[in-house]
Please model this.
Amino acid sequence: MISLLSRKEIDDTRWNACIEQSQHPSVTAYTWYLDIVAPDWQALVLHNYLAVLPLPVKKKYGINYLLQPLFTKLMGIYAKQQPDENLVCKFLDAIPSSIKYIDININQTQRLNISGFTQKEKSYQMLHLNRPYNQIASGYHENVVRSIKKANKQHVFIKEMSDTKDIIKMYQMQVGYKLKHIKKAHYKTLETILVKAQEQGRGKGLGVFDINGQSIASAFFMNTTTNISFYMGSSTKQGKQAGAMTFLFDYIFKSYCESHSVFDFEGSSIKSIADFNKKFGAEDYCYRQIKKVK
Model:
């Protein structure tokens, strides 16, 4: 039986255990993360947390709707066993009729045979880490190898960045100005997320510095016990010339190979970004954007 639960009815321990043990665990599905990006979220829960579906419910002009929260690529159904199409459709059918508009991304690879929903396939890239580093590095494109050599010649180095404000500030300066949908208030939410992730032991900030100790690139990574993902990052002009982000990714793969299963680039259907990720040997995976107007 699938039950609809309000936030206060959800057992955080059981919920987070379900996410952690699922086939596709994600930090963005933990209760503390959802509390930040969708404070009024509800959920559909199968039996004793055998499977769950977060519902980031919002209300506008008196109408309830589901919209993919900012800073969250996917939602979907989380379960210890990979949910089949029948279970996915049962969950989607169980979304309450009071929700009149749905536009969310779900971790479902195959097209669903369910009426009333429009579906669009999107892609992202992942790299398998459960193997020795030399096997991972053997899959690098020659451009990646060249960038790493360049960074080493310039004696850049990596160190942890505990102050998330510095990571966000660089991101705003190098990337944020291009993203018109991210407003000033959103950066406060982003800072809350990064700080909370560090407190929960689920996030780490790293910076790349030049020989003079100047920051030329920075990034924040999220991790479950099995997966690690690129959450956000940016480079200065000097950092791009030095191959700093490539150097940083290589460092992550070297650090987490064999201890984690996959690295999620949180990638993109945008060809230029996808091509960059694939130069590390990453592969395309798909998810679905589903929409419905009731």
User: Anything to note?
Assistant: Residues 164 and 195 are 7 Å apart (CA to CA). The chain has a mean pLDDT of 94.
